[in-house]
Design goal:
This protein is 35% helix and 18% strand. The chain is an alpha+beta fold. It folds into two domains: 2-65, no CATH class; 69-248, Trna Endonuclease, Chain: A, domain 1, CATH 3.40.1350.
Length: 249
């Protein structure tokens, strides 16, 4: 949004009555779908300070920078984690299944996805996968709505993404998803790699044994580069992490 404002401000300066126009904007009342930006752009087009082709370029550039901004508008944490993230992963990896006692007789709600590895005719076995999600927002703007403080991936603003309620004994593989305005990133770790990571806090709350949390921020996120994967490699990365876990175990 900041970049769009700067681009429009430069164009407003080209108006003959730029100062008067800014005064009008200060008093402007906006009601959806009529906004300040719609008002500015329509006037710039009418004054021929912005061509239709330039408008299209401006629009495409903004969309590219904010491709995932709608995800920050999902207010409820469960709506973001359980609904959006699970649906997103099912699109990327259709083989991911929601677990059940039929797939895993020991299942009791402690992990999110099951990736079946059994051969036909053999006893079912597979990978227990836990999903953790977070969104990159400006850490120094705690009182703003998420969609306002959402950060682009190239921002130098501080952020703190907290992956909570991590129970390393309840899953074989952990898949972390982090969302920026313009980018989604994925990391895949086996259970022991989480448990033994120096940033993993083994107790999220006092007296809460077996459950921890891990923070991603600008200072430490690069230390997880070895676990980052592209969306097209998530399934393979999960299998590889499962093999690492078996070797450690």
């Amino acid at each position: 949004m900041e970049k769009l404002k700067k681009e429009l401000d430069k164009l407003i300066e080209k108006l003959e009555n730029a100062d008067d126009f800014r005064l009008i904007l200060e008093r402007l009342i906006s009601v959806y779908p009529f906004s300040e930006y719609e008002y500015v752009i329509s006037h710039l087009l009418a004054a021929r300070k912005l061509t239709l082709d330039e408008y299209h370029d401006l629009r495409i550039s903004y969309i590219d920078r904010n491709l995932y901004l709608y995800i920050f508008e999902i207010s409820a944490p469960r709506g973001f984690g359980d609904k959006w993230a699970f649906g997103h992963l099912k699109e990327l990896v259709p083989e991911f299944q929601r677990p059940s006692k039929k797939l895993d007789p020991k299942y009791s709600g402690e992990y999110d996805f099951w990736l079946d590895l059994s051969d036909k005719g053999n006893k079912s076995y597979g990978i227990r996968i836990e999903i953790k999600t977070s969104r990159a927002v400006d850490y120094e703007r705690p009182d703003e709505p998420l969609y306002i403080k959402a950060l682009p991936s190239d921002s130098d603003r501080p952020f703190d993404m907290n992956f909570q309620q991590i129970k390393t004994k309840c899953a074989d593989v952990f898949l972390w998803i982090a969302v920026w305005r313009d980018k989604i990133r994925y990391w895949v770790l086996c259970s022991d790699e989480v448990q033994n990571n120096k940033y993993f806090s083994k107790r999220q709350h006092r007296g809460n044994v077996g459950e921890g949390q891990l923070h991603f921020n600008r200072e430490n996120i690069f230390e997880f580069d070895r676990y980052e994967v592209k969306s097209t490699r998530i399934k393979n990365a999960v299998v590889e992490a499962y093999k690492r876990q078996k070797e450690i175990g």
